[in-house]
Amino acid sequence: MNDLDFLRTPEGRALLDEVRDTDPAQELAVATRLRRKHPAPLVSAALGQARLRQRAVAKFGAADAGRMFFTPNGVEQSTRASVAAYRAERLHGLGVRSVADLCCGIGGDAIALARAGIRVLAVDRSPLTCEAARANADALGLADLIEVREADVTEVDTAPYDAVFVDPARRGGRGRIFDPEAYSPPLSWAVAAARTASRAAALKVAPGIPHEAVPPDAEAEWISDGGDVKEAVLWFGAGAAPGAVRATLLPGPRTLPGTGLPDPEARTPGRYLYEPDGAVVRAHLVAEVAAQVGGGLLDATIAYVTADELLPTPYASAYEITDRMPFNVKKLKALLRERGVGTLTVKKRGSAVEPEELRKKVRPQGPNAATVFLTRVAGAPTMLIGHPAR
After folding, report:
1. Does 25 score more than 70 pLDDT?
2. pTM for this entry
3. What is the pLDDT of residue 176?
4. Which of 45, 280, 345, 379 could covalently link to 247 via disulfide, CB atoms 3.0 to 4.6 Å apart?
5. Across the strands, what pairs with 273?
6. Distances (CA, A) of 179 to 168, 169, 187
7. Do residues 167 and 79 make contact, with C-beta atoms less than 8 angstroms apart?
8. Residues 6+ away with beta carbon under 8 Å from 350
């Protein structure tokens, strides 16, 4: 029996409940105690699964993570539940009622699709991964909507399904894979599979995908959740606007479509600095944000927008700038001491300085808070000090 077989037995489930909240620092003592009553492999499997479930809470929430089964790669590579739910709702809104989920992993996307009322064929070539996907569909009461099939995705007939979703593997033995043609399967194959879908298709790709690698008949969407860029999706078929780009921010969703504006001009720093959301930056839609706030760029090569007025936008965080000076650690330290700044947030674009190194050098102390931006203005290394605009 493998670990998942063990853990799905009544004894395994009871043991999982017992070790659920185990502190990693107490793991050895807990293991020693439990091995007096349970087989050592089962104890090790339960403790390992408990660690994975604790890590998975950030992506799946405590309720689901506490019932699901994970592999180490599954936790690392799964889509965050909020992002998967957003994508599933978009497919459902397009009239999709069945999806071939290719490279399904442990089933995170299949779960979101099934919860949106969509029937799913979930395919992966890893036996252990497929077993985890089946266990998760069963644990969450979705087994009637999710069929898990162990197979090579390139050999699966997707014709009976309304839509195709592909999440190619983007990690190899040496870490992240940046060349889309080195994905497994390659992006070119995934695009060809998407084009055969009867209604719609979505391909999950790395958010750093070059814009020139996006097929002309696809719509490209960059998605962030809580300010963190999570993925890019290439959409085909119904509801997709070929050649269009958009940035979607969760929770919400709030979507900023591209309008084809030229890059904004660089200008003298104004009273306010706007930091566009990462999805906006990845989608090359900083110009759209600048137009919303009546601003320009701090520097032609930096994605910071500056303006004279405060015009709130959901697509950028606004800061009121109180001081501007050339980069100089001693002057910054003196200014922070004068202002009584003990809580210092360091942000940077276009600077090689590491935020933690700067904090150590200036040693902020005091009751007040400030934000320092390490950037360039007209090509010159510059520090802008301020605080979130109110």
Report:
1. yes
2. 0.91
3. 77
4. 280
5. 306, 319
6. 12, 12, 9
7. yes
8. 299, 301, 302, 374, 375, 376
List CB contacts of 77: < 8 A, sequence separation 6 or more: 105, 169, 170, 171
Question: Could you count the other beta carbons within 10 Å of the beta carbon of residue 11?
Answer: 14
Interatomic CA distance for residues 294 and 299, integer angstroms: 16
Identify the pLDDT of residue 370. Answer: 97
Sign of CA dihedral 178, 179, 180, 184: negative
Contacts of 3 by beta carbon, 8 Å cutoff, 6+ apart: 41, 45, 48, 49
155, with CB counted inside 10 A (0-12, 13-18, 19+), is exposed
Structure tokens of 63? 């309720």
Q: How far apart are the first and last CA of the chain?
A: 59
Closest CA to 154 of 120, 119, 188: 188
Closest-CA residue to 371 (of 345, 349, 353): 345
Neighbours of 174 (CB within 10 A): 6
